[in-house]
Every structure is written in structure tokens, then in C-alpha cells.
């Protein structure tokens, strides 16, 4: 197979009805798509744990040992990679010892989110009590690991670096991973009903240590990181440590952390498995999730697309220190963050029904991670249920799959496949946005984008058409193989604000259709405001 040069891709072609073109270069692999790109995040925040996951064994809501059955059944279908827990900011205020042992004996603490600068909505201030304010610790390490096992995910625990010392971290490791009855903490685990070790590989060393996780400087955090990881018993479980990485584009955090780390020698780099990048697009809770103009539709899509530059920028800086490229990026918080919906209960902090726009943001991000499959080993939208960029909404016995869920389901065939270079050529989408002085300025976003991967004879192409009312007639050329058959699955609506609700839970769902595919080119129409997955069998 011959590589197609960029110049050839851009060369004018014979006149066709198609106004866009996609070239899939099967002979230019990027790398395997780590299934952990399809990971999740759960924090003791709002309605995430209590109600979202934990309903209790005696609840009228159907459950498996206290864990919401509908959530388990649906999440399992997505083959989730890892689930990060217990935060977020909550993690650096949490003592894991509060959350194990007989439930009626566990202490009650004030939740991190009950009284912080994040408490921005009046409704939340009106909260009288409940687990969102007073953490009863009914859900802790054992319940969390049980939940992970039920859905087939790996647990990823975030250690408290701000308010607990190294010893508490070491004891948590011991509780989770030491063989039965070998130590006091592993005997405690056995007493709590878990003879087999939890075998937790993924450990976060703090969270957002530049902010709620300690307000450290990067140099201070590098020192903490070295201290927390100087001697860690493995108990036969390979440990994969994730450092508290930057806030969005703060490359200085990355550079100064790595600088501080290698002050004690290059060997320190080998301790890191992943460098955690956090990036939220959206207004961090200022704008209502389903109120936006056409310009605001594009504005947010474009801001979510900045993930690509963030990955490239931090990756470049990491390479200044890690020549062997041992450390990869773990984007362990991402998503669009809007204002809490007025009709959700006050305690459900940052809960809102995400719309078609959020679904496109999910797809844009997953495609970016796949286009950078050589750099990104994990990604976790914030958060799984009932807050921010969630895949599920619950309220007592009500349960709904959000548009984000459907995108995750559509993208599943990429996991474990090999991402291949793919070029998209389409007219850009133009829009206006307000600058800091509230003056209108012209802006634009690509007209089509996505990612492709291949595994055995299956080729998967996922594509986002962000245009609010233009269909893209697109010629797709496959370089290096021919097509035998195909299928499309599309999530779209003529209503840019479409979403699912308890009253109308299936308002927005993907639709599948067969596709006649043969030879090495095919013409496909991508509807406006859509996410499409094309599955091809190669001959
Ligand atoms: O996901 C909500 C919060 O956002 C997390 O607790 C924190 O890490 C981030 O700032």
C-alpha cells in the first residue's frame, strides 16, 4: 500500500456532487485505542453516589446489594474501562477508613461540596441536610469495588494528598491489595466480607493539586508526589500511578512538575503511568444546558475541540523530560459543564439533562482521544451519573440514558482496535462569538471531523457534522483495502436542543441503517448536527 501525501489529498478531484471528502489511510497506524479511553468518574458530589449509584439494599428501587440495577445493567453494556473514585475535590478531604466496616458504625462527615466556593447555586445553599451535605459513608471502598466488578470495570482510586499523610495511603493500598489475613488491614477486609484482594492497580496521587487538592505549586506537588510514591508495596499487583496534571492549557504546571520530579533523577519518571489532564468546556455552571443560540451551539463545540491542542501541547512538554515516552496522558476529567437545571432536586449539584450539543461534544472528544491513541491511555468524562457531562440521570425509581450514553455506545467498536490516520476535507462552519469586551468576533470550526480504526476485517469510522442545518454529501476513500459491506448508525435531530427526560426518555436515540459498500470509495450523507458511526467489513 502506498501512503497518500497531504498534497495529493488536497488536490482538486473530478467534479462530484460531494462537497466533502474523507480519506482513511489504513497503512498509517497511529496506535491501539486503549479501551480505557472509555472510562468513567464517580465522586461523592450531589446525586452521583447517593441515588445515582447507591440506593441501599432495602430500597424500592431495584438494586443489586444496594447498587441501582438499571445503572449496572446499562453501564455493563458499554464495557467501561476504569472508574475513578472517590473524587475529584472530595478525594483530598476523604479518609478511606470512614467508608469501610459495618454501615451503621461508619462516621458522618461534612461533604467537601457542602461548604466550599463551588457552592454557587441558591438551591444548594437551601439544602438542610442529606448525604450531599453530610456524608454518611454508606458507600465506600468495598461498595465501590463491588460496583466496578458488577459492570466489568477496573477500579481507580484517588489518594488524599492534601489532608492525609502517606501512611493513610499505604494503609489503603494494604486494605485493598494485601493477601487475605496477612496484615491487620487485609484481615479487616476479610472481616468486611472480601477475602480476595481488590487488586487495585490504578491510583491517583491527589487530584487537582494546583487547586482544591492543596493549592500547591508544581514544585511542591513534585515533592509530594515523590514522597507519596517513594516506597509502595505492590502485593503482586502492578501499580499504575497517575499524577495530578494540569488545569486545561497550563503547560507551566506540566513543565515545572516534571522538572521538579527529575531533580531526583530520571528514575522518578518511571513511577508515573499517566499524567492527568482536566479540561471542562462550558461556563462552569453559569449557563443553562438547553438554552443556546446557533452561535452558542458552535461556540461550545469549538471550545470542546480545544482538547486536541491541549493534548498536543502537554505531550510536547512531557517529551522534554521523558525522552522514552513512558508516561502517557490520562484525561481523567473532561466534559461540558452547565448550570444545574431548575427542576432537579437542590442536592443534585450540577445535574442537568444534556442535549444533542453535549452528545456532539462527547463525540468530538472521543474522536480526539482516538486520533491521539499513541498519547492518551485513559479518559473519564465528569461524571457518570447525575452531574455535569453524565451518561445517566436518576431520581428515585426514574432512570434515563442521556445522549452522551448513546455516543459511548456508538463508539464502542473503536476500543482495542488500531487507530489509523484519517483526513477530513469539508467547508468550515462560521459563526460569531463575544470577546471579553462583549464585542462580536468572527470564528470558525472545521466542517467535518472524526476518527477511524481497524481491527481484523472491521473498519470503524466515526464522524461529527457540526453544521446546524447543512447536510454534508461526502466521498469516503479507503486507501489500502476494499469494502465488502457497511452499516450506518446516526444520532441526530432537527431540534438542536433535543434531549431525553424522565417524561420522554427516548426522544433522542441513534438509528441504524444498512449501507451498500463495495470498492474503495463510497458516498455518504452526514445530516446536520449529527454523530455518525460507519461500520465496514473489509474484503
Ligand atoms: O467534577 C467536578 C469537579 O471538577 C471535581 O471534583 C474537580 O476535580 C474538578 O474541579
Protein described:
The chain is α/β, with parallel strands linked by helices and 539 residues long. It has 12 helices and 25 strands. It has a 9-stranded mixed β-sheet, covered by helices on one side. An 8-stranded parallel β-sheet has the order 2-5-8-9-10-11-12-13. It has a two-stranded antiparallel sheet with strand order 3-4. Strand 3 and strand 4 form a beta hairpin. Helix 7 packs across helix 8 (251-262), helix 9 packs parallel to helix 11 (356-371) and helix 11 packs parallel to helix 12 (403-411). Bound molecules: alpha-L-arabinofuranose.
Features:
12 helices; eight-stranded parallel beta sheet; alpha/beta; nine-stranded mixed beta sheet; binds alpha-L-arabinofuranose
Gyration radius over CA = 23 Å
Strand order across the biggest sheet? 23-22-25-20-19-16-1-21-24
Count of helical stretches:
12
Biggest β-sheet strands, sense, barrel:
9 strands, mixed
Question: Structural class per helix/strand content?
Answer: alpha/beta
Catalogue the ligands.
alpha-L-arabinofuranose
The mean pLDDT is: 93
Helical content band: 10-25%
